[in-house]
Amino acid sequence: MELKMLDWDSSFFEKKIFSVQLNNDDDIDEIEFHLQKENADLAYVFIPLSSSISKKVADYSNIVLYDHKLTYKMNLSGKDFQAVENVEEVDASPNDDFISLAISSGTHSRFALDPSLNHKFEELYALWLINSLNKKLADKVFITKHKDLITSFITCKIKNEVGNIGLIATHENHRGKSLGRNLINQAHHWYLQNNIKVSEVVTQKANKIACAFYENYGFQISKEELVYHWHFK
Ligand SMILES: CC(C)(COP(=O)(O)OP(=O)(O)OC[C@H]1O[C@@H](n2cnc3c(N)ncnc32)[C@H](O)[C@@H]1OP(=O)(O)O)[C@@H](O)C(=O)NCCC(=O)NCCS
User: Fold this and answer.
1) What's residue 170's pLDDT?
2) Strands (E), the chain
3) Where are the domains of the chain?
4) Least CB-packed of 10, 25, 137, 190 within 10 Å?
5) 19 lines ligand 1 (CB under 6 A)
């Protein structure tokens, strides 16, 4: 069992929030005792899909499943990605349309689904975009435009020799025109320029369109986890 207090989440949601990584042999009552002693309001509980402890978790009515989290991975070794025309880099503050596009990438997220957190969901995704553009959470943000409208965007960060996509969305009137595919091509071009050969992106199994999009692109699932919210108050 790994228990960690999450300072950023606690301050943003104004609740005392922990993360807990549960494994097969963990004693849930003992963890509950620790969390109550710490005066926790909420714990995000992460369980590998194959773990049998999810059966025990099912007995606790205040531990609710909010996400079947999929990590997709692609090996870029030996592949070639050219820079994509009409994709540009941005780092300026976003306008309201750009913020709405960022919010559209999170509609399946556990923060949108949990009724005790969803009043802050839009603000969370707006902040995620702002902090990606100012380079706190991302290294690069690429966009496509039609006239003045941002039609699609992607945020990317290189960490531990892996290129990670943070946010990606295409404006609903511009979907199905390969904008998303082109953004990933551009991200992969930039990764390879930096000698990064592994690309990863996380999504929710419930986001069927995103899963089809990543799988069609050539990503494969490398990790599956269940994420629960354990509310104490
Ligand atoms: C996922 C998303 C970014 C895809 O963007 P897009 O610009 O429409 O995607 P593309 O046109 O580049 O599609 C490339 C391929 O993905 C697959 N795909 C895209 N949309 C699909 C859909 N609605 N259903 C099934 N497959 C789809 C197709 O195989 C498509 O190839 P094809 O055009 O040859 O059939 C877009 O649907 C979106 O913004 N969704 C909402 C935000 C979101 O969920 N973001 C992901 C968060 S993890």
Assistant:
1) 98
2) 2-5, 17-21, 42-48, 63-75, 88-89, 140-146, 149-159, 162-170, 198-204, 220-231
3) 2-60, 74-224
4) 25
5) no
